[in-house]
Structures are given as C-alpha cells and as structure tokens.
Amino acid sequence: MGYEPLVKKNPLRVLNLAGNNKKMGLIMARAGVGKTALLVQIALDSILRGKRVVHISIGENLEKTKLWYDDILEIILQECSVAKPHELIDMVQRHRMIMSFKESAFNRARLEERLNDLILQDIFKPDCVVIDGFDFTTMDHKDLEDINSLMESLRLQTWFSATSHREDDRVSPSGVPAPCHELDDLFETVVLLKSDQENVQLEIIRHNSDACSGDTYHLSLDPATMMVKKDD
Amino acid sequence: MNKDLEKVRNIGISAHIDSGKTTLTERILYYTQRIHAIHEVRGKDGVGATMDSMELEKERGITIQSAATYCSWKDIDINIIDTPGHVDFTVEVERALRVLDGAVLILCSVGGVQSQSITVDRQMTRYNVPRIAFINKCDRTGANPERVVGQLRDKLNLNAVMIQLPIGLESELEGMVDLVTMKAIYFDGDQGDELRYEEIPEHLKDDAEEKREELLDAVSMFSEELMEAMLEEEDIPEELIHAAIRKGTLDLELAPVMIGSAYKNKGVQPLLDAVEAYLPCPTDVENIALDLDKDEEENTVSNDSNDPLVALAFKLEDGRYGQLTYVRTYQGVLKKGETIFNTRTGKKVKVGRLVRMHANEMEEIEEAGAGDIVGLFGVDCASGDTFCDSKINWSMSSMHVPAPVISLAITPKDNKAQDNMSKALNRFGKEDPTFKTFVDHETSETIISGMGELHLEVYIERMKREYNAEVEVGAPRVAYREAITQQAEFNYTHKKQTGGSGQFGRVAGYMEPLEEEEYEFVDEIVGGVIPREYIPSCDKGFQASMEKGLLIGAPITGVRCLINDGSYHAVDSSDMAFQQAAKGAFKEGYKKAGPVIMEPIMKVAVEGPSEFQGAIMGSLNQRRGMIVGTSEEGNYTVVEADMPLSEMFGYSTTLRSLTQGKAEFTMEFSTYKQVPKSVSEELIKEYEESKKNG
Questions:
Q1: For residue A102, what is the nearest residue in chain B, using CA coordinates?
Q2: What is the fold of A24-193?
C-alpha cells in the first residue's frame, strides 16, 4: 500500500508491540497524559497495515472521537508527503468504525451483540478493537476474563485504556497500578505513560506476559502527537 | 422608533420539528401585545398560528419560510426570525442565521436533542450565534429537563447550565424557580399573563440551593468580581450574576438553559427577560463586509446610523403588494423615498414603502436605523444582495451555498399551468439560491434541482397552491458529475474544406485534475502560434465541453486546461474554428485522462431505539453506505453513515417497516465521491441505451 513509512514513528512499531496475536493489551496513565492519543495511534498503525479497527469510546461522543483521528492524521500528513492524501483519509475511514457509548449503556452483553451485528451481517469485520474509557474500578477478575474469552472467540486483538489515580498507590507485583493491579495477568502487554516537563515517557512494564524493565522498553514521546521523539 | 441599539435584539428561534417553535413564537407575540388572541398550530378555529403564513405550512403543521416579525418587550425591540425546522431547507436556516445576533434553541423536554437540533446547532456555531436554550413541553408525560441538559452537553458540546428549576413536571408543572433571584414564579390568569413571585416551595429549597451553586460555579469564570464575591461568601448581587451569564453567552462559552411549556403558557415571559439580559444587541456582534472597490478588503460594519448605508436582503416573499424584501441594515439609515443601489447588479433603486413586519400584517414606517430588520416593497433583487448608498460599494460576505444534488423533470399539465409555472420558478430561483431550474435542450423538459426530495416536493406543492400551476413530476434523478483523475495531453487539428470558406485550427496542451475549483484555463501560448484573438475561443470551447461529459453526459468538474501549442491559417481560422478545435482537443484528452463518475454523498444520521441498531446498520450497509459510527445512550442509538444519495430513495419507507416506525433519519449533503466500478458501468450502459432510444 505504500503507507508503511507513515507509521515509522509510531511507538508501537518502534517497540514492535503490534504483533498479530489476538491478546489483550492495556495502556495506563493518569488523566490527561495521552491514553486516547496512544490508542488512536495503535488503531492507525493497524489501519495503515490494512486491518480493520473498531474504536469503542465510552463516555465520549462520536464527533470528538472522529476529531482525534482527523487531528493525528493531519499531523502525519504534514510530516510525510503522501501522493494522494484523499485516498489515505478515505482508507482510514473505511477501515475504522467508531462506537460511542454512554457510560451506563456499556456492558459485555451489549458489546457482544454489537460486534456480532457487525460481523454476522458482514457490515464490518474488525481485526482489532480499541476500548477507551472502560471503567476498571467496577470490574472484577471474572468480568474481565469474560471479555477476554469473548474477544478470543471473535479472534480480535484488544487494547484498553485505564486511568490511574494519584491517591491510589496500590500496585501489582509486576508494577501495574490500580485499578488494574489485580487484573494484570489477563493482559499480555501493559504500557505505562507518564508525563515529565516536555515529553511523555512510555514504559512497557509487561510484555509477552513477563515483567520488563530497562531501556529497551522505554521511549520518549511527543505529547502533541504521541509519536516517538526522534530526528530520523 | 427606538434608536438605542442596546435595546435591540435580532433573534432567531430554531428547533427540531414539533418541539413547539411556532407555538412559542405565537405566545411571545401574544405577551408582547402584537396579537390579541392565541391560535394553535393545528388550530381548531381554522386560523392557524400567525407566523406560519403559507397555506402549505398550515396544512402540514410545519414552518418552511422564515418570516421576520417585530415586537417589543418592556423597553426592548425584538425582531424574531422564524427559522424552518427541517434539514432540507437548511439554506433558509443559514440565511436567517446570517442576520441574527442571537438565538433561542428550543428543545422538547421528552425528545431532547435530536439530530435536527445537532445540524442547526452546528450551523449556529459556524455563524458564531450566541444562544440560550429553552426546554419546552415540560408539561408532557416523560418530561425530563435534566436529561436534555445532559444531551446539550454531550451531543452539542455546549456548556449548558440551568438557570431555572421546574416546580413540578409533566401534568403537575406549576411554574419555575429562578436560580438567579431565588424566587418561585407562577403564571396566573387564563393565558398566564399574570406573573406571581413567591418564596421557593419548601420541598425544593435544597435542590434549588444546590443547583444555584452549580450555576454560580459555572458562570464565575466569566467574572472576577463574581468569583471574589463567592470566595468571600458575601451576598451576591443579581446584576453580577446576570452580567457573568451574559458574558459567557456572548463568548459562546455558556448556554443558559430555561424551561417551560409554551402551550401551557408557562415560562415565556422569563424567556423574554433572558433574551434581553443574555442575548447580544447588534453592537455586541462583529459583522464583516467586503469592499468591492478595494479588492474585497474586509471591513467591520460600524452599526452607526450616521455612516453610509449597508443593508443585506436576506429573504424575498411574494405578497399581495408585489415583492417583499426583508433587509437587515448593518449601518446607516434606510429612508423611505431615498435611492439606494444594489452592489451586485450596480442598479439604483428607490425605496418605495418601508414596513415593519408582523407575519401577515405590516406597519408602515419612515426609516430604519442600523441593526434593524424591516421589509421593503417594490425593490427588484435576489436574496443575498447588499444595498448601499452611493458613497460606498460594500458587499456582505458571500454566503455558503451548496450545489444541488437532486433533480426532477416537471411538465405543466396545461397551457395555463405553463405560464404560472415559469412565474413560480422565476420567483423560487430568486428566493432560494439552492433551488435551480433549467431546460434540458435534448428533451425540452424543465428540470428543477435542489438539496433533497422534500426540498423539491415543497416547491412543487407551492407551485400548485400559490401559483395554481399543476405539474407532472418525473422520477428524481441524482446529480452525477464527471471528473478526470490524471493528466493527459491533447493535440487536435480541426480542419474542414467542404466548399465555401474553410475552417482550420490546431490546439495542443494538456488537461489535469483540479481540486477545490471547477475549471481553470491556462494560456501558455508563445510566439503567437495561436493568435491572441482566438485564445478566448479556446477557453469557450473547453468550457462548452465541460457541460456534458462523455461517460454519462453529466457536467464535468475540476479540470485545468492548459494550452501551449497550436497553429492557425491566415484565411481559414476563425473564432468558430478554434472553438471546435478546443472541443475536439478536450474530447481527445478526456478519454485519456481517466474519466470517472462522481456521485453526491450524504451525511445520514438515523436515530432509533437500540434494539434496532443491527437492523439499521444492515439496511445502510446494503445501500452501499459507509458506516462512520454509532452512539448509544440508554436505549437510544444514533447511527451515522456516509451514503450515496442514489441509494437513499425510498429509504424512509424501508426504515419505517424495519423499525415499526420508531426510527427517523436526517440527511445533509456532504461531498462528491467517485462511484464504484460496477455502478459506473451500469450508469454508462443506461446512458448509452437512452441515447440510442432517444
């Protein structure tokens, strides 16, 4: 397709996280650091490789979610020249579907119903699902296992975002903060975002179900775009 | 006449169908003593509400045309522009928005924010119109103003804050608590004319305190004084709160929410007070005019009656006394008997009669100052024209006019209808820039085109009712276009020597796709290989070719034609010969330039109960739609999709049977896109067959 160069600064690509496995991943950060932006990057990375993504937005409306994509695409297009930008934008639209839910309207049964609506009627066959704004505080291990098995049965790769809070210092042995500290074994990959003065620091604290540490699992991101800060 | 501009409000009332806009307007006119009896929209007395002046509107219970009407409340002059509530008439809405300074957004307390409201709100944002929301029909079963406020925040991204609290709801609606003054308001008398202020009922006191806190929190950021007063826990003066709400509203950062029931005569007078207190006067709003003598330099209009006149004609109507033109003056004074000129046509016109409009009745006036909205009689113009006096040549910035996407062939039933039809079409074309009409040279049919099926239906109805022109209507047709996708060269020689004077011309160059613009002609001829006088002939030849594409005969758009070579003959070359050569060259290049068919894509929003979401998506998917996304709230879902217009014919019937009539949809033109190959082949086949047969 020729869109590969566009994603070379995508953090997923750099860290080689975006595998083909159908497991669950998690992005954690405090409010306002850039979870949604990173989820959109994950989605775009998949889309530009020709996959289809369902973006589930809980508590945020459709219009705003669309804007996230438009903004980040615009930045990508500014940085790299694309012969036919319209075709790229069109392709992103065709490979993406946004479902927004009011907090109270989202639950596992509904998720299953919606995904089945899409797949069985042959409307849209997703390869990847990103779920933004999922409330982990009301979730126990069993609930998440349920979702995990649903996604596995549909053969979908799934990424979640979760908000951690300053006042809650509970942490799992592998370093996953609350509210996901007791759920960490269900995720194949856990990414932590922290902001310092200028950049956003990305740290992988769990990968291939192993705890990780060290520089290989660490990146600095541009807070505006959530893309890797590098000159090349 | 009131010349103090601070005492003028030009407001629009805009809403979803059936949220009670006309009823509310009617009540406003009643309380401001413009009318002396209240008629209902679907009145039993056969009179109908005063604002719905067109018969058709009365029959359908919907408001199509935006009539301007004047009233005064306390010492304030209010001009109300009644705006249409259906999306197919959005040009009407947009034109009305252009002349408004502020607006009241009416919402139904049961239906809440529906997709129509979203469209209208988006337009208001585009024109920077400050607004207050009025949650109407609080007397209805299922009324839930708080839910509507939530929707205003979520769906419209408005910083909506309630400034009133209902006392009772549904059939128990008694009145409301004003959270600024902390008083309960009741409406006594048969028509609710007598306001009674009381202490807040005991059971609502805590709630009111809490809501007032919320209100103060939200508005304190617009006033430092207010913030200080709150920090020091002083008694907060009402004026301070009013000023903060006003500031927030004018900055488009806040949308105060009022509640009531127009039908039950509750909450209308406080709404009028809020219009005065929070909506802008003409000097609060900046309006830009373009100076046509200085290459469209931007100027801010002064709103000063002593400056030269600038007035905008925003609406035409055929009345009993000839054409009535609604104008808004932006600066200067419009005086009866004076000569003004139309900056579009350059023609001078004399102001014959000047009237202040109240729907069907009018009041003669001598002059209208800056910021006013009045009617003019006997002035020939199109809507959107700017009038100035001879001192300046300004034009109010052009309005966004979308291209028509659908067309219909109409044939008059008899000779009489023929005459009336042309009169009607002439009038409609002037009134509504999105309504176009032309005669197809090949079939000699009259074609009308516009923004949607309903848009055209309404004009056909109006033709019948107002002009007594019965017409037969053909099947609706989508306005396809053709475009090219790649650069292609041409080099064409037109030569004819069959007795008499010959014809000769050679044109060479290339064509390429052009984004944004429709057509561009570039002349790079050097050394006079095509003589100067024939260059415009080439341009003409190209333009003529653009009218009808070679694939399906649809107009071609987005082409740059560049000529850089050619040759001529001293005797045989002529204007005609070069036009023909250019046409031949265009044909030659077009075939190589990867021509494609483009179709109008509509932004469609279907709303309905969640249980039907799968069915709705399936139905859109079957119609070549691209589903953009869905949003779910409780048991209610909106599915958004980009749909080809050609697939939307008859969709309302499908949707109804699919969802037991519980879902509705709106659509709006979005863009033109290339049609898929299979459809394109089909269209080309159809076109070729029709050519063979006809």
A1: B633
A2: Rossmann fold (3.40.50)
